[in-house]
Write a structure and sequence with these properties.
Layout (H helix, E strand, L loop, with lengths): L7 H30 L4 H33 L3 H21 L1 H13 L24 H21 L3 E2 L1 H4 L1 E8 L6 H9 L6 E6 L1 E10 L5 H15 L3 E9 L1 H29 L2 H25 L2 E2 L1 H31 L5 H11 L1 H21 L5 H20 L1 H7 L8 H18 L1
Parallel strand pairs: 1-6
Antiparallel strand pairs: 2-4, 2-5, 3-4
């Protein structure tokens, strides 16, 4: 409807939307299971499950929506494409979670007249888990800090393997005069010209190819000479439809806009989480997110994977996923801080993480399945793009447990910060409980 071009960053936004859509439904289902375990009848458990999951879903999705909106206004090009698909995805996710999903469950109840949850639900396997995550927090936190230092050191000394998008060069669009474009043959022929890095990929259809050639030393004359040689090699079998020169200054501007957009998004999210939770949660979420970004950049540095504009989309996806995961875990911690005011903070954090463990596993696996499918069947053009996102999802899940949690202990978070709010919510909830009784 918008007439926007679907690019790799746009696909990244769709993948993140898939993960968040599943996450919203899983949060509802897990809340329903909690209500059933507490002794509520199934109908009341479903109603209460939707109500209790509402705040968590709103917090997790609003933080992502804030990031998307800021990126849209401050970003440009591919970054805006990512912001558009992600914004639409967030809005539709929240809408369907509380309309379509609820309606489907109501239809299911009317038709089956169930009194209990189906025995086929397997997420209960996590109920008996009591993993002491915080027992090794110092060692894991120290290891994560060392990994970040190594990543930053590699970034400063070795640097990223920048692609043509950042180093500049030429873009050539060709169409085969007969049959399909043979990308392997194009790469082989142009490699013999000794004009530097060559990239060739399908573009629009099987008969069309997009060729990227790195910037030539020697200025404009060298660029023209390189293009003359390219034409001489390919013009017999291909028609030249477009030739453009990409300057590194343009790509540098896109990078600067994306960086400013990410920083502004994090600042806005910091304020939102501070208002909704406490400052310890806000700072913890931002530090956990920065940890994921640094390690993902470190992956590019250490492996030598080419860093181009689509890599920025991968970084943005990691930011969105990490924030969503951290906010969900923090929301359960906040709830338990109100409920168990005398419980030691490390024990309370472990309890909260274990309570959300099934949701973390289900959401993480669903997102990973989507990314693995892209990695296996998306072709070599997006292989590095999806590899970075796969790594980012894994470190995002890790940081929501071993970075976000220990930071609350380091900041000396006290349960009494929620005392007033908890007392007020108990007063507000008393009449409804009496009415139900």
């Amino acid at each position: 409807l918008l007439g926007s071009t679907l690019t790799l960053p746009g696909i990244a936004g769709i993948v993140l939307t898939m993960g968040m859509a599943v996450d919203s439904n899983v949060l509802v289902y897990e809340r329903i299971r909690d209500e059933v375990k507490s002794g509520r009848p199934l109908v009341q458990a479903i109603d209460s499950g939707f109500q209790r999951a509402f705040a968590t879903i709103i917090d997790a999705n609003v933080t992502t929506l804030i990031a998307a909106m800021v990126l849209f206004f401050l970003g440009s090009g591919p970054v805006r494409g990512f912001a558009v698909t992600l914004s639409v995805g967030v809005i539709t996710t929240v809408f369907t979670a509380f309309t379509m999903t609820r309606w489907l469950m109501a239809v299911w109840l009317r038709r089956t007249r169930q009194k209990h949850l189906p025995k086929g639900v397997r997420t209960g396997v996590f109920d008996a888990q009591n993993i002491r995550f915080m027992a090794i927090r110092r060692y894991v936190f120290a290891a994560a800090a060392v990994a970040c230092v190594i990543a930053i050191g590699g970034f400063v000394t070795k640097g990223l393997n920048l692609g043509i998008d950042f180093k500049g060069g030429s873009i050539v669009e060709v169409q085969a005069k007969q049959g399909n474009a043979d990308l392997g043959e194009i790469r082989a022929k142009l490699a013999e010209l000794n004009i530097g890095e060559i990239q060739a990929q399908s573009f629009g259809g099987d008969s069309t190819a997009l060729i990227r050639i790195q910037a030539q030393e020697g200025g404009e004359n060298a660029e023209q000479s390189a293009m003359t040689m390219v034409r001489g090699e390919l013009e017999q079998n291909y028609d030249f439809r477009r030739v453009e020169v990409v300057g590194p200054a343009v790509s540098g501007e896109l990078t600067m806009n994306a960086t400013l957009g990410v920083l502004a998004s994090l600042a806005a999210i910091l304020v939102y989480i501070w208002i909704r939770f406490e400052w310890q949660f806000a700072v913890g979420a931002i530090i956990a997110t920065m940890h994921d970004v640094i390690l993902t950049l470190g992956l590019f540095v250490l492996t030598g994977i080419e860093f181009n504009l689509t890599s920025i989309a991968a970084i943005l996806t990691v930011v969105g996923y990490s924030l969503n995961d951290t906010v969900v875990v923090y929301d359960r911690m906040r709830e338990n801080l109100r409920r168990y005011k005398k419980m030691p903070l490390p024990v309370l954090i472990d309890t909260s993480i274990n309570q959300t463990l099934s949701r973390t596993v289900l959401t993480g696996l669903t997102t990973l399945l989507a990314l693995i499918a892209l990695y296996l069947f998306g072709g070599e053009v997006i292989a590095s793009f999806t590899a970075a996102m796969l790594f980012g999802v894994l470190v995002g899940t890790f940081s929501s447990i071993y970075i976000a949690g220990p930071l609350l202990i380091a900041f000396r978070l006290r349960p009494d910060v929620f005392d007033k709010e908890g007392e007020q919510s108990e007063k507000d909830g008393a009449p409804s409980k009496a009415a139900k009784a």
